[in-house]
Amino acid sequence: MSEEERSLNFIEHIIEDDLKAGYDKKSLRFRFPPEPNGYLHIGHASSICLNFGLGLRYDSPVNLRFDDTNPAKEEKEYVEAIKADVEWLGYQWDTECYASDYFGQLYEWAVALIKQGKAYVDSQSSEEIADQKGTPTEPGTGSPYRNRDVAENLRLFEGMKNGEFKEGEHVLRAKIDMSSSNMLMRDPIMYRILHKPHHRTNTDWCIYPMYDWTHGESDYIEQVSHSLCTLEFLPHRELYDWFLDQLVDSKKLRPKQREFARRNLSHTVVSKRKLLQLVENDVVSGWDDPRMPTISGLRRRGYTPESIRNFADTIGIAKRENVVDVSLLEFHVREHLNRIAPRVMAVLNPLKLVITNFPEGTEEWLDAENNPEDAEAGSRQVPFSRELYIEKEDFREEANRKFFRLKLGGEVRLKNGYIIKAESCTKDENGNVVEVQCTYDPKSKSGSGTEESLRKVKGTLHWVSIPHAIETEIRLYDRLFSDATPDGHKDKDFMDFVNPDSFKKVKGYLEPSLKDAKIGDRFQFQRLGYFNVDSDSDSENLIFNRTVTLRDTWAKLEQKK
Q1: What is the pLDDT of residues 67-87, one digit of tens each?
Q2: Residue 343 catalytic?
Q3: What is the rounded CA–CA span in Å between residue 50 and residue 33?
């Protein structure tokens, strides 16, 4: 076996075996088939990367097909959001398709099945139909309408289509096998009546096809070669094939369904129903809330398409479901942002620092490297003045030898600037330090080459000049759930594990180079983390989201537990 063959995932092995068995490579076609009833999440991203990745690997077309068969839950808003997400991830589909494009053809095929005695109209309630399905160990019982004559079935089905009946009054079922060990084969429903406008066909139809009837036939119409689904659809494969058996032309390509395992992500939920619950209960601000595992939420938070694609490549494709730690996703965004994000200085918990021997009313502009990981990123100028902000936690009056930041009588270097020494501090009436008075060594400027500049001090602090600082809103986001598997507890609701500290809003102070930052721009706030400009920003007010901290702070918490 060659090195290339060993690196293939099992889906690619299936395709390679088909090609070796005589499959024409030109006939390969894949599809990504979302239902437009919500926003795509990180689990969908893996499916997108799989299908479009196969398209790139085999130079084959990939369709974007919307399985829009349920007008009660589907909206045009979701269609547009899905298209934006796929494009943002860096993929372009060959053909934009909709299951609703095939309603006419699906109806004609259903009529043909009725004429062949392979489908019938059932007039029972949904509860009666469910009761007659049986159990996994007991066969079902046939509907009293199972042997309706063809003419009556055709008349009723046409009446269903024409809106002559109420919702739930009739359904169309395939006549297969009520004693099958696969309960999906026990006369599955093909059509139900819905008097609701569709986002594309409006009120043209009063009946809508079920997923199992629609999916395989849509694949066949589009001549999709490999229909890739998550493992939950494995029991559906038998029905997928049965429907195709009834109508395929031997001269045309026959699609094949194959399944891969869903990848669940820790500290989150990916059920659309549960995500919608978070939105409707105002736990989050919307589908694109930066704490949501939706692609739009990750984008707004500052994740890059590359980091998500790299994450999908790393977890790969498997046959068994498992939970992937969210820290792996965070690792990939850190790794990518470390390479591309400009370094800037910001202070989020300010403490005033006064350089008493720096001339009042003057300023000095210092050179600062934009990104040590990118030689072409260049440098910028940052202002230095008598009054600065540093982080409160970077100063202590007294500290042991392991504290390498600023303390009374101690020295640190200011990033890109000078070595300073804390001489004294001022406190408020509650004993809190509100100002630190320091002196600086004028000959210790970073990069100046002087003997004083080469002197070693153990701590380096970020800072901003108070007269030049941009005041801004900083949104600190963290994991939405405190538990690794919030929906994995039988005795508790997933809402019980919402992390109360997943969102905090603070006032921050930024160096002036950020005044022209645009929505979506990403930065590393030195020593604090990676941040990006939120879409709520405008020309007068910048708002930054924390994408991720510099280090995995949750790892230590998990170890303590």
Answers
A1: 999 999 999 999 999 999 999
A2: no
A3: 12
